[in-house]
């Protein structure tokens, strides 16, 4: 039985995921991003349980 706590890898090269990353990158460049990890986790739907 698979472990439910293990996240499957995501394809960061899909157009949708590239756009998500670009939005976070734009916020970083603009100086509006205070927590890069939190914003990337939110963009890709990760939870903080794995820290």
In which range does the helix fraction lie? 40-55%
H and E string: HH
Shape: flat
Ends distance: 23 Å
Tally of strands = 0
Number of helical regions? 2
Biggest beta sheet summary: none
Mean pLDDT: 86
Radius of gyration: 13 Å
Task: Provide the structure class.
Answer: mainly alpha
Low-confidence stretches: none
Fraction of residues in β-strands: under 5%
Description:
The protein starts with 14 loop residues before the first helix and ends in a 7-residue tail after the last helix. Helix 1 (15-29) packs antiparallel against helix 2. The chain has 51 residues and is mainly alpha-helical. Helix content is 47%, strand content 0%. The chain has helices spanning 15-29, 36-44. It is flat, with a radius of gyration of 13 Å. The mean pLDDT is 86. It is built from 2 helices and no strands.
What's the structural blueprint in terms of helices and strands?
Blueprint: H1 15-29, H2 36-44
Summary, kept brief:
This protein is mostly helical and 51 residues long. The protein has helices at 15-29, 36-44.
List keywords for this structure.
51 residues; mainly alpha; 2 helices; 0% strand
């Amino acid at each position: 039985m698979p472990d439910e706590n293990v996240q499957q890898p995501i394809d960061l090269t899909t157009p949708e995921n590239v756009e998500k990353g670009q939005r976070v990158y734009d916020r970083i460049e603009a100086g509006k991003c205070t927590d890069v990890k939190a914003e990337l986790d939110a963009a890709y739907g990760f939870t903080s349980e794995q820290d």
